[in-house]
Amino acid sequence: MLVQIGLIFGVVVVLMVLKVPIAFAFGVGAAIMVLVFNIDPEWVISTSFDLEMSYAFLALPLYLLLGSVLDLAKMGDRVSDFVVTAIGRLKGGLGVALVVTCGLFGAVSGLAMSALVSIGRGFLPAAEREGYPIPYTTGLLVSAAILAILIPPSGNMILFGFMGRLPISLCFLAPLIPGVILMFFLSAVHPQPLCRR
Question: How would you describe this protein's topology in the membrane (predicted)?
Fold first, then answer.
């Protein structure tokens, strides 16, 4: 059984190396798995249909739509302007403002990629003007964008709760405290390299 799974995985990897689209590569892998393990195709179709008709999966495309709407409305710029006005005068304040903005934007959008796009577009040029090294600012932005996954609502937590058959409300609450702690520590540690210069 382990050998068959390894071979199926190998077929999927070979197809992806040959630049077959990922959906088709996984589809071929799934079809081979159905044939090798004698899984009833009707069961696969009915289970797939039941999964796609759930309310949890309905929320995921809506999160993507929300991220696009927030990006078009320049919501990231507005949130960042507010936070920079409040925190920006401190030593290393622009970086702290970037971390706090990612946390606030995560509470609105729930997707790390939407936080990266919306906030990075405004903060990277401003940080370069302030003299921050671009690699440092990019690393801080990517680290802080994780807050969008941890601070609820989060599209990833909906998917995790759905796959694990867990209550979505508990999945939202579980990463809240670690997200706030991470935001605090990223904000506290960020000015240290600037003070050493």
Answer: Multi-pass membrane protein
* Residue 89 shares a structural domain with residue 43: no
Q: Using one digit for the tens of pLDDT, what is the confidence trace for 44-78?
A: 888 877 777 777 677 777 777 777 787 788 776 77
> Do 25 and 66 belong together in one domain?
no
Q: How many domains does the chain have?
A: 2
Long-range CB pairs of 49-55 (<8 Å, 24+ gap) are 54/162
Specify the DSSP element, H or E, that contains 41.
helix 41-52
- 72 and 168: one domain? yes
* Contact predicate 154/115, CB 8 Å: no
Torsion angle in degrees (nearest 10) through CA of 51, 55, 60, 65 = 130
**What pLDDT is attached to residue 10?**
92
| Residue of higher predicted confidence among 9 and 59 | 9
Residue 37 sits in the same domain as residue 65? no
| 20-49 tens-digit pLDDT | 999 899 999 999 988 888 888 888 888 877
Give the integer Cα–Cα distance in Å for 184 and 63: 26
Contact 64, 158 (CB under 8 A): no
Instruction: Work out the average pLDDT over 2-15.
Output: 89
Q: Which residue range(s) make up the domain with 29?
A: 2-52
Same domain, 89 and 168: yes
